[in-house]
Amino acid sequence: MNASAHSHPAPGTGREPRRSMVVCGLVGVAVMAAVDEIVFHQILHWHHFYDRSTLGIGLMSDGLLHTGELLALVAGFFLYADLRRRRALAADYAWAGFFLGLGVFQLFDGIVDHKLLRLHQVRYGVDVTPYEWAWNIAGLLLLLVGVVLTFRAARRGSVGSGSGSGLGPGSGAESRPGSGSGSLS
User: Fold this and answer.
1) Rounded to the nearest 5 degrees, what angle is found at the Cα of 113, between the Cα atoms of 110 and 116?
2) What is the per-residue pLDDT across 132-154, written as a single tens digit (0 to 9) for each?
3) 60: buried, middle or exposed (CB in 10 Å: 19+, 13-18, 0-12)?
4) pTM (2 d.p.)
5) Chain-centre distance of CA 131, in angstroms?
6) What is the distance between the alpha carbons of residues 24 and 1, in angstroms, rounded to a whole number?
7) How many CB atoms lie within 10 A of CB 134?
């Protein structure tokens, strides 16, 4: 069955806000996983994805995380390209989804992986409290940006001005035919 049959285009636009949000949410999760893996695991050597065993198991767990993150990133960009090709990308919802994905990964890692499952900590050999607070507050801020962008996109869509353009008011995008075809840049 065609994936677009499950997604409802925004009235009068042919854009798919929900799918745009989900696809870019996947990209956001993958990007934040990559930042975590590259910065905290590889560059700073602060932790591995699974630190409750040997160094070899820790490195293998990092490789599995990296594999999952790359697969999610590739899948997300193929789905993003499909939205662009079909001119169905709602860029304002896509940005909202991207920030929601960043925040969800960060908070999931900070709360579930660090506190509930205790797979690893942000850092070892120091008082972890300020690191944990910074980690979770950063995730919460990213999530909040995503929520604000979601409400803003919904409000813009309901008044019919620039739905899916991803550009601010007064940018002139509302008056150009085909504007807002969905660039995230």
Assistant:
1) 95
2) 999 999 999 999 999 999 999 99
3) middle
4) 0.78
5) 22
6) 22
7) 12
